[in-house]
Prior knowledge:
Layout: H1 10-21, E1 26-29, E2 42-50, E3 55-62, H2 63-73, H3 78-87, H4 91-104, E4 115-122, E5 142-148, E6 155-160
Antiparallel strand pairs: 1-5, 2-3, 2-4, 3-6, 5-6
Helix pairs in contact: 2-3, 2-4
Amino acid sequence: xxxxxxxxxxxxxxxxxxxxxxxxxxxxxxxxxxxxxxxxxxxxxxxxxxxxxxxxxxxxxxxxxxxxxxxxxxxxxxxxxxxxxxxxxxxxxxxxxxxxxxxxxxxxxxxxxxxxxxxxxxxxxxxxxxxxxxxxxxxxxxxxxxxxxxxxxxxxxxxxxx
Length: 162
């Protein structure tokens, strides 16, 4: 049995987002790492192993791509994403982003590795647990991806496996 959750390949992440959103997704690998110090407007999905409940992985997305993903899932126009990227996520957009985080988490489960589940999604401004906060911008295995969905605001998504 692998002792660690595998980091999904960028192509797997892109294909999952395309399937989930029903839209083309463009992706650049090697974007700047999201930082809570630089931008507290991040969505952080925390994945844990089951049944031991160890931190397994993080989804970290800036407000722009979180708004875009939430709007695209809900078949909303780009204007809704642009407004949310400036003002914050509406409850509907937040629910849609939570769904995207949850579904994308399936990429973290691999044969022989610990089973991973979504524990919590923290929205911009919400306090992160003490063990999670430093992992948001830690130098651990991760993909920092610039995500573009034509017609919508672009942003950064990072998947990390501490």
